[in-house]
Amino acid sequence: MTAITADQVKKLRELTGAGIMDCKKALEEAQGNFDTAIEILRKRGHKMAAARQERDANEGAVFAAVNGGEGHMILLACETDFVAKNDEFKTFGKKIAQAALEQGITHAEQLSSLQIDGMPLSDKLAELTAKIGEKMEISRWARLTGEYVTAYIHLGGRIGVLVALKGTAGLPAETLEEVGQNVAMQIAALRPVSVDRDRVPAELLEKEKEIAREQARAEGKPEAILEKIAIGKLEKFFREVVLLEQEYFKDNQKTVAQYLKSVSPTLSVADFVRLQVGGK
Questions:
Q1: Which of 54, 68, 75, 173 has an alpha carbon within 20 to 30 A of 150's alpha carbon?
Q2: What is the pTM (predicted TM-score) of this model?
Q3: Domain positions in the chain
Q4: Looking at domain 59-195+260-276, what is its CATH homologous superfamily?
Q5: Is the pLDDT of residue 185 over 70?
Q6: pLDDT band at 47 (very low <50, low <70, confident <90, very high)
Q7: pLDDT for res 65
Q8: Which residue, 54, 231, 256, is CA-closest to 158?
Q9: pLDDT above 50 for 197
């Protein structure tokens, strides 16, 4: 059996709010794997203190560039928060995002050949690394296209969101920008996993159903109705993780879909991307 340390138990307790012995047993059963331990605790009915736990990762910042119908976003990683706040680092990150947009890259493999100040990006990264004294790399890149694309950067670059709107015909640019920013703030704060329920990953749905079945089984519910209970609990899950079904953060009497329809009956979200320093 994997030896579990007090620090591991403390970390899992801080993440989940579960009891010390429950955390220790879950970690032992999971052989020290935190994600598996969290799943075990949820199956046993423990309420999570943090529904979506943050993971350790490098420091850095998110940068974006858009032109109305296309947006690019990068997460430029570094070793310390001090460097992430450096003006030269931030200027460099903005240049990379803008270059990705202007030079029309469509695949991550093309990033290294981007031209920044007349030099390949790979050379510029090496140059700035030598100057600042910390390793830097692009850990994430995303591109979004659509009828109207906007970007939102939150917490000084800790979180970045791209949103593509659809059904935008006849709406002025200032309205689209306001709506796009509102939806992007919703995504930054509430972390949906998909635009609609049809795009929720099948493996995530099955995991939630399995957890619901295990919880119901632990409560003594008959096996014959476990699947029905699990499907019923998915409705609450959808309201939490599906963007269009979430409560709109500026008016909890509306869903995000209802907010969009209040602006225009055709307006909706085509897609979104969310990047976070220290996140997935």
A1: 54
A2: 0.76
A3: 6-43, 59-195+260-276
A4: Elongation factor Ts, dimerisation domain (3.30.479.20)
A5: yes
A6: low
A7: 98
A8: 54
A9: yes
